[in-house]
């Protein structure tokens, strides 16, 4: 009796000393029966030993935040720059982590050469084809899925034309989408090919995405999946809105990836440059709202694990986020420490509080935006030569000013 009491005590003491199995497990392990857990990385994340260790501990899918985009890989026609993308691809190869390719055709972060000099459709398609073939072939061994076309639909709910009026669309109409998928499939018949967009839970935009993908697929365009970027905030979307979007998309595709998940604590949402960097004091209640919104999002995603294969956070920590650390958007804070939100995701907790009421828009901010375009002051261009350094104010994309306007 005494003997077994002491054995029990010893076993308990040993358990307390060794890292408990759930402590040692990362999000990827906890979610192994649901979907891959991914992260968008920059050069520093895979080079700094502590950050690289965190990536390996928590994630089993990687996306290059910027380094595989059209302009960084082919800044001038036929002149490729593989250094940064190779470094991340090699990190994935060495550590056996899957790589999501992002992205082949996008109106932003694309060399102007792709659409300048009024090319005929044929010339433009040839440029696209050369680019897509070169990038896809190079990373064929390690990339399992590509965002082939990014953000081709408009955000304007009143627009008659559902497509974004980008230079790519102006040259070739929606044929550029079909061709991009065709070239990607030719270059790698095994990779899953995605259409990727933001505001993807908005009822009007999601319908447009749905109709476009459905029509393309009916016409034989090889689209395997829909990427839901997942740039959300603590006020929305609701579980019902996310559920409705996924339900709609899964009626036409077999694969859905959440490709760029982050949750802002300010009231803005969506893609390009429509966010504020103004300081927000992160109160305990805001921290709770963030954890709760992550809890709601993951609750819906787990429900749809039959179609969702990967959920990727857009950046490793608040320090890396394109939204700035004041937005407090990720499960890891600016010191790479897990937040309450991380625990809620990991422990699959339910939200504690209801979704907060959205604050009224600040009229001063609105006026400023109308005058100065989106997102306040113009940021300097992204400089790939400084990829290892902090680039103050350019963690997000640089978008040439005439392309800044959504839709
Ligand atoms: C879009 C793009 C991403 C990234 C984010 C902002 O969502 O798809 O590649 O540039 O904007 O960082």
Outline the structure in words.
With 407 residues, the chain is α/β, with parallel strands linked by helices. It has one domain: Glycosidases (TIM Barrel), CATH 3.20.20. It has an eight-stranded parallel barrel with strand order 1-2-3-4-5-6-8-9, surrounded by four helices. Helix 13 links the parallel strand 8 and strand 9. The longest helix has 20 residues. It is globular. The C terminus is likely disordered. Bound molecules: alpha-D-galactopyranose (GLA).
Task: Record the SSE blueprint.
Layout: H1 2-17, H2 21-24, H3 27-30, E1 36-41, H4 43-47, H5 49-58, E2 61-64, H6 70-73, H7 83-95, E3 98-106, H8 121-138, E4 143-150, H9 167-172, H10 175-187, E5 192-197, H11 203-218, E6 225-228, E7 231-233, H12 239-249, E8 255-264, H13 284-303, E9 308-313, H14 340-346, H15 363-372
Parallel strand pairs: 1-2, 1-9, 2-3, 3-4, 4-5, 5-6, 6-8, 7-8, 8-9
The structure holds alpha-D-galactopyranose.
Compact overview of the structure:
Residues 353-407 are annotated as: Disordered. The protein has 407 residues and is of the alpha/beta class.
């Amino acid at each position: 009796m005494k003997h077994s009491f002491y054995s029990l005590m010893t076993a308990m003491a040993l358990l307390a000393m060794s890292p408990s199995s759930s402590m040692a497990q990362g999000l990827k392990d906890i979610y192994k029966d649901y979907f891959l857990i991914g992260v968008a990385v920059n050069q520093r994340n895979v080079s700094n030993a502590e950050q690289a260790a965190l990536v390996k501990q928590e994630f089993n899918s990687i996306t290059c935040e910027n380094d595989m985009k059209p302009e960084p890989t082919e800044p001038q026609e036929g002149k490729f720059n593989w250094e940064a993308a190779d470094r991340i691809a090699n990190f994935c190869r060495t550590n056996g982590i899957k790589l999501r390719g992002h992205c082949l055709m996008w109106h932003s972060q694309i060399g102007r050469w792709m659409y300048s000099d009024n090319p005929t459709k044929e010339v433009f398609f040839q440029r696209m084809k050369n680019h897509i073939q070169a990038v896809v072939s190079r990373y064929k061994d390690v990339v399992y899925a590509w965002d082939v076309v990014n953000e081709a639909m408009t955000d304007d709910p009143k627009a008659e034309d559902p497509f974004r009026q980008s230079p790519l669309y102006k040259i070739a109409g929606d044929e550029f989408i079909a061709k991009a998928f065709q070239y990607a499939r030719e270059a790698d018949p095994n990779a899953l090919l995605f259409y990727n967009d933001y505001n993807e839970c908005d009822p009007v935009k999601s319908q447009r995405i749905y109709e476009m993908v459905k029509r393309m697929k009916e016409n034989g365009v090889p689209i395997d999946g829909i990427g839901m970027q997942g740039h959300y905030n603590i006020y929305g979307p609701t579980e019902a809105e996310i559920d409705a979007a996924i339900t709609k998309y899964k009626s036409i595709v077999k694969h859905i990836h959440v490709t760029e998940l982050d949750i802002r604590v300010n009231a803005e949402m969506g893609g390009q440059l429509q966010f504020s960097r103004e300081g927000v004091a992160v109160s305990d209640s805001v921290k709770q709202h963030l954890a709760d919104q992550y809890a709601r999002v993951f609750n819906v995603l787990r429900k749809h694990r039959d179609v969702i294969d990967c959920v990727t956070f857009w950046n490793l920590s608040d320090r890396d986020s394109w939204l700035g650390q004041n937005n407090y958007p990720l499960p890891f804070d600016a010191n790479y420490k897990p937040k309450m939100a991380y625990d809620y995701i990991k422990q699959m907790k339910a939200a504690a509080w209801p979704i907060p009421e959205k604050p009224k828009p600040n009229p001063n901010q609105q006026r400023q935006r109308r005058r100065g375009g989106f997102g306040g002051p113009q940021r300097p261009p992204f400089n790939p030569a400084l990829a290892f350094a902090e680039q103050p104010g350019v963690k997000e994309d640089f978008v040439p000013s005439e392309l800044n306007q959504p839709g």
